[in-house]
Amino acid sequence: MSAIEEMFAMHAKASRLPEPEREHRFAPPRRWRFDFAWPARMIAVEIEGGVWTGGRHTRGTGFEADAEKYNTAALMGWKVFRFTGGMVKSGAAIATVIEAMKEAA
């Protein structure tokens, strides 16, 4: 796990959210995983690294693979929230998840 994922996990715990499943696999036989998931509420979180440095998620093939993954998740009924490191650090990521949890309850 990356440092920013660990920070998000600490924010989730501090916010007293139900404990998420980490590296939750969905859509077998695909090997897709969500960084964090609350399967009972069909809410998932992806922490996107390398946004400003040309990481995998911003290059052509990586972006296309992510689009396929997220579109499949949406067709299955998942709400997938994607956050950058800056969004985690600022608290915007956890605020969004808290709001989503309220709506899903």
Strand content: 15-25%
Provide the domain count.
1
Mean pLDDT score: 91
- Spatial order of strands in the largest sheet: 1-2-3-4
- For CATH, the homologous superfamily is named as VSR Endonuclease
Total number of beta strands: 4
SSE ordering: HEEEHEHH
How large, in whole angstroms, is the Cα Rg?
Answer: 13 Å
Main sheet record: 4 strands, mixed
Which regions contain 5 or more consecutive residues with pLDDT less than 50? none
What's the CATH architecture name?
3-Layer(aba) Sandwich
DSSP helical segment count: 4
Q: Assign an overall shape.
A: globular
Question: Which helices and strands appear, and what pairs or packs with what?
Answer:
Blueprint: H1 3-14, E1 21-25, E2 33-38, E3 43-48, H2 60-75, E4 79-84, H3 85-90, H4 92-104
Parallel strand pairs: 3-4
Antiparallel strand pairs: 1-2, 2-3
Description:
The structure is a single chain. The protein is of the alpha+beta class and 105 residues long. It has a single domain, classed as VSR Endonuclease (Endonuclease, Chain A, 3-Layer(aba) Sandwich). Helices cover 45% and strands 22% of the residues. The chain is built from four helices and four strands; from the N terminus they run αβββαβαα. The chain has a four-stranded mixed sheet, sandwiched between helices. A hairpin with a 4-residue loop joins β2 (33-38) and β3 (43-48). The chain is globular. The termini are far apart.
